Amino acid sequence: MSNYNLTHLDELESESIFILREVFAQFENPCILFSGGKDSIVVTHLAKKAFYPAKIPFPLVHIDTGHNFPETMVFRDQIVADLEVRLIVGLVQDSINSGRSTEERGKNASRNALQTNTLLDTIDLHQFDACVGGARRDEEKARAKERFFSHRDEFGQWDPKNQRPELWNMFNSKHDQGEHFRVFPLSNWTEMDVWQYILAKNIQIPSLYFAHQREVIRRNDTWLPISEHIHLNETETQVYKKIRFRTLGDITITGGDESDADTLEKIIDEVAAARQTERGNRADDKRSETSMEDRKKQGYF
Amino acid sequence: MNAYLDMELLRFTTAGSVDDGKSTLIGRLLFDTKSIFEDQLDQVKRSSNRKGLAQADLSLLTDGLKDEREQGITIDVAYRYFATPKRKFIIADTPGHIQYTRNMITGASTANCALVLIDARHGMVEQTCRHAIIASLLQIPHLIVCVNKMDLVDYQETVFQKIKKDFESFSSKLDITDIRFIPISALNGDNVVNRSEKMSWYEGSTLLYTLENLHIGSDYNHIDCRFPVQTVIRPKMAPYHDFRGYAGRIAGGVFKPGDEITVLPSGFISKIKSIETFNGPLSEAFAPMSVVIQLTDDVDVSRGDMLVRSNNQPDLNQDIEIMMCWLDTKAPHPKSKYIIKHTTSEAKAIIKKIRYKLDVNTLHRNVENLNIGMNDVARVQLRTTKPLLTDAYRKNRTTGSIILIDESTHETVAAGMII
After folding, report:
1. End-to-end CA distance of chain B, in Å?
2. Domain check: are B246 and B124 in the same one?
3. Surface of B (253-312) touching A: CB under 8 A
4. pLDDT higher than 70, residue A253
5. B405: containing domain
6. Are the C-beta atoms of residues B361 and B389 closer than 8 Å to each other?
7. Is B218 domain-assigned?
8. Which of B182, B213, B244 is the last residue before a domain boundary?
9. CB–CB of B398/B226 below 8 Å?
10. What is the ipTM of this complex?
């Protein structure tokens, strides 16, 4: 490799840092949407680098369905303490209590879709004009069409057919009062890039990503973790399996894979050999072919 | 493991219509590099079945939006990713039709390399010229011409050589130095990832090998030092009370501690005290690295300023000649003031003069009809409210590009390459 070449991870990192600094320079009141998943952890890590030696100049916002992995919550609180950033929590339960959202019913009921109302209300309450998220274009076909700076109208809606062209590294953040932007610094990263980066930079992630013994049931071709929020039907039985999670969401919709990968190196080997996309185990994406596009138009992450 | 960490990044763009085999080619690259997952393929197969197609329609992989899948066309730029042990690739897949010129330009703006597809049966057509002209306008450093569907012309060398000759006589008018030609059959995989046994007369490399080995180290300008300041970093806490650093992404040249620099537009001269990153100070930094630069003197520097070497400065100009692509449905208004963005600086601008409209199929300069609409490319003169620190786009794609934004709709209405 010649002197003035960067590796792909260095180039991706530099691009993401550039975007995070543009967010700081172009918006008045940005935040980072923090789910406790690996992508939002990497975004937060990049924000730490972008403003070093100053602290991250944005708060972290967690939209909390109340159906969490306990490990994720411990991890979230630790990262907030370490980085000395402000944490803002939007509770889906509050939206339900106030009558703004209604709990889903039925066997596969989840609070996934309810997050949208809570997210939009939190954005409105704190007057955020930019929300930085960890979504990547390789994750899902609707997300492949996302801009780095993605405009949301006053209702928080995404209009995928009328997006602003984004050329070179110039980002147009102009908007009217009440509108906001979603910003995706990891747009050009793949799942593999994220894992390689986590390994290369020794970034801490929740233990849930590593293979561990857990009580689970088999449902919709995946191993769903047992929690107080899951309702078993007569044919389902709890078993112990060694599993790990490829993505982390709400505990009621995040399925695990049987795995022995208990180190980052083994996870990377597993990701390299994987024949299913990482969101293949996400019940929220399986509802229909356009479920992500439909949710995104409403204002979802 | 270390192999993964040593990869380079190559961004390439493709443009094409439904029939020229572009989707098949991308599908082939993704397939043969094992970048398509089973659940994605299942979804494509299910959709293809519903549409009554016999084979899985791989274009469904790249079309992300409901409308695109229903209409079977790519409307927007779709980004696809794949990797080999040597490189990670980002494909900006764009529609090829004239009405999507703006999307092709968007996809081309960040590309190191452009793939132009030619159907071996038809040879060069209008669309071929358009794609090559756009690649040239956007100064994509490398162009690979894939003569596709060689299987349908019995893999004849004469067909390939004729197309190559035709293209070369056309491309002599273009501003592209590195052009390569590869005869392929995307459908059968000939010369895409694996060498074709049916074209032993072809002695060059396969497409993937070419993509893996293009020399991209000199695609960035490492000569003219340009550092547009994004923001100022002041921690205001112990032990960094005196820390004042300028954050930005290097747009050109190589910066080192001790270098004498000039701050533009103020003209203050200072020296680089240190180049900081989270991982520690650097002994040198080059494009496209994101760093923080500290100066030895306490001079006034803010967003939109540029740090340059004193003996090598950009132009400081309020009258800017550009090649402009109009991106908006609403035509430009001669009296309208637009927001102009250039690197990290911002001003207002009017379109002072339209010199000619460029036909992107033929390079013909039209001076009679100067009405500009969406997708039109024109040479224009801008007048800005404050001087901008510009380089020619040929010299530097970062400091040589601008966008215009409509003040009232906030739409990005034009993209410009500075001449």
Report:
1. 45
2. no
3. 254, 276-278, 286-290, 292, 303
4. yes
5. 315-418
6. no
7. no
8. B213
9. yes
10. 0.92
